[in-house]
Write a structure and sequence with these properties.
Blueprint lengths: L1 E2 L6 E2 L97 E9 L6 E3 L3 E6 L11 E2 L12 E8 L2 E6 L6 E3 L11 E2 L5 E4 L2 E9 L2
Parallel strand pairs: 5-6
Antiparallel strand pairs: 1-2, 3-4, 3-12, 5-7, 7-8, 8-10, 9-11, 11-12
Amino acid sequence: MIKCNECGYENMDGLDYCDSCGVKLNAAAGDGGAAHPAAASPDAPTGAISPAAIPAEPPHPAAEPAPAQSALGAEPAPISEPVPTPEPAPAVEPTPTPGPTPAAGAPTFKAKLKLIRGGRTGNEFPLESGNNLVGRWDPETGSFPEVDLEADDPEAKISRKHALIRLDGAKITIEDIGSLNGTYVNRQPRLTAGTPQDLKDGDEIIIGKTFFKVIVEPVS
């Protein structure tokens, strides 16, 4: 009898495979039932290894990429961002230096009286900044006018202190100061004494029997 080492079934002598489990019987089974390695499946080719018998290899961890190094082994230098080029500053126009400011009360023009009738026709009398007395020179009465008409008034129609012309900033005025024969502007009614009247370029002034034209010129 040949005992199957796989299932222990007693098979008749001369059989190659167990009638119970079908495994290949050991031809030397009559040696007292020594244990023999299990036979391979009849469907498996001789010498084949069952895939289940091959131990599975443990998964290998994914290799981390090594840090990049330069040819000399040093850490790579950080990449610097490009520095923007500053735009040129706009050209600054120089600030013009203002000219000297006229002093308070100083006239911004030049004025004069031009004699157009009576006396020395065409004669001119420049007017100063501030007060200009119009009359006739007389040291006994203390009359020293800026516009002295002594030589242009043979009939003495002009008072010693007849009128006052004032230049103040951009303004020019005239007023009668109590004359005997009066003061007139542009042939309008006689001026009231002590009441200033504005003057402008081209105005006509009558003092006694002498006629004048106002000439105003800007300061250059």
